[in-house]
Design a protein that fits this description.
Number of domains: 2
CATH class of the largest domain: Mainly Beta
CATH architecture of the largest domain: Distorted Sandwich
Structural class: mainly beta
Strand content: 35-45%
Largest sheet: 8 strands, antiparallel
Helix content: 10-25%
Shape: elongated
Number of helices: 6
Length: about 450
């Protein structure tokens, strides 16, 4: 019995190593099968544990598609040829908490489990990431991460609990083979100041494919309802992807949203928080070792890592009492809420990419979107995001002083805006000139059908 897999692109375009998943109505135990294209090229298919049973077997493959393609399943792959490419391979990690470092054929990335030390260098997530095509590292120091989630826990109302920095995760292997790796993180969020956010846990699915210039994520959190920024927040989170270029350098220097960008510039909350940090380290005389550490590290506020702006008021850190944290952050919120909506912060509507670093606080707050990009004008490298449901707002930072760049699914005053449980696809490559085409492809899956010949 021969199985034929027909593939069609609804966009009638060309795709590079696009993942396809298909099911055959037979029990096949072989972990790897070959399939052949019309041209006789052999494509590796990996058996998936999830969805396979005594009646059917699911497979995944990555294929180049120019409008249409056809695969015929062939014999089992008993031994993987040494020269086959692309396939996923593992490398020696650089970080002490590295769970796995992968060469996917498109990316060299390092997935870490976190160290719960309250530092950027202790975050779980992707702490190193580069494209193999140009070798440019987006996270050279390992002190930032792609894939953290923050709000509603990392909010002034909750005492700025930071899940990536304050937790370690257990990582479960769901699928692992030369075509696809699927991991699931499990973590428990430390309690903060809000009773309704205590005792919450989360899981994050990460999926990487051989040769594919994007990866996939999904975040699930114990259901919650709270009030942030004066608004009811039910099962919405802030996902934050960070990048670093070093002082005076930006890995991405433009932002755009599909269909045009509607945004307000500046971050009154950050300004108020920085002012309160300065006031606190100047006026509080506790003399604790932690407070003295903050005084030293915040000597140059402009180039300091953003983490230092909030850690002083973090309930997990314990530098200040909960009552003092509540009092000082209530002052920050009251002032920031007013300044955020003053008439001098006009909404800007533009079809042009936004030069974020030229604007106040090197920060913008764009409105709702499900397809967005940050890119570097000179090199053309771009990170493109698609979410299966739109985030209600974003915070985009491109700060030259520190070289820190951020993509966050939150609005003003750390208010989370991305629904829990959405699918996120993130592409990276030389896509600046055609990022909207890439975003459309992330949004639109290939049509895949199976025939019995």
């Amino acid at each position: 019995m021969t199985y034929r897999i027909r593939i069609e692109d609804p966009l009638n375009g060309a795709r590079v190593r696009e993942p396809i998943v298909f099911t055959v109505n037979a029990a096949i135990d072989a972990p790897l099968l070959w399939a052949k294209t019309d041209d006789g090229e052999k494509i590796l298919c990996q058996r998936l544990n999830q969805g396979s049973n005594a009646l059917q077997t699911r497979f995944v493959a990555t294929v180049d598609v120019n409008q249409t393609a056809t695969l015929d399943l062939a014999e089992a792959c008993e031994t993987l040829p040494a020269d086959i490419a692309p396939v996923i391979s593992e490398k020696q990690g650089r970080e002490t908490d590295c769970f796995v470092r992968l060469d996917t054929g498109a990316f060299d990335l390092e997935l870490c489990s976190g160290k719960a030390e309250g530092l950027g260098s202790s975050k779980w997530g992707l702490r190193h990431f580069r494209a193999l095509s140009d070798g440019f590292e987006l996270l050279p120091s390992g002190n930032n991460a792609i894939g953290g989630f923050y709000g509603p826990f990392f909010t002034p109302e909750n005492g700025l609990i930071n899940p990536p920095e304050h937790t370690m995760v257990e990582i479960e292997i769901i699928e692992k083979g030369p075509v696809m790796h699927h991991y699931r993180m499990h973590g428990q969020i430390p309690d903060g100041l809000l009773d309704e956010l205590k005792g919450k846990s989360f899981s994050i699915d990460w999926t990487f494919y051989a040769g594919t210039p994007f990866f996939e994520r999904r975040y699930d959190v114990t259901p919650f309802q709270t009030v942030i920024n004066g608004r009811s927040v039910t099962n919405k989170i802030t996902v934050g992807d960070e990048f670093e270029g070093g002082k005076g350098k930006l890995v991405f220097d433009r932002f755009a949203a599909y269909g045009g960008t509607r945004y307000r510039a500046g971050d009154p909350y950050a300004g108020e928080l920085v002012d309160m940090v300065a006031d606190t380290v100047r006026t509080v005389k506790s003399g604790s070792a932690k407070l003295e550490e903050f005084r030293a590290e915040l000597a140059d506020m402009e180039s300091a890592h953003w983490d230092l702006y909030w850690r002083l008021f973090c309930a997990w850190e314990g530098v200040l009492s909960d009552d003092e944290i509540r009092d000082r952050l209530a002052q920050v919120c009251a002032s920031a809420h007013v300044k955020a909506d003053l008439n001098d912060r006009e909404w800007i509507i533009t079809d042009e990419p936004v030069d974020v670093s030229a604007l106040p606080h090197e920060t913008i707050f764009p409105g709702p979107a499900n397809k967005t990009v940050e890119f570097d004008q000179e090199s053309g490298r771009a990170m493109v995001w698609w979410t299966s449901k739109a985030s209600g707002a974003f915070q985009i930072v491109q700060r030259k002083q520190s070289g820190w760049v951020n993509w966050g699914s939150n609005g003003e005053n750390e208010c989370p805006e991305l629904p829990v449980g959405v699918d996120i696809k993130t592409a990276y490559g030389p896509f600046a000139e055609r990022w909207m085409q890439i975003a459309d492809q992330l949004e639109t899956a290939l049509n895949v059908s199976v025939e019995v010949l």
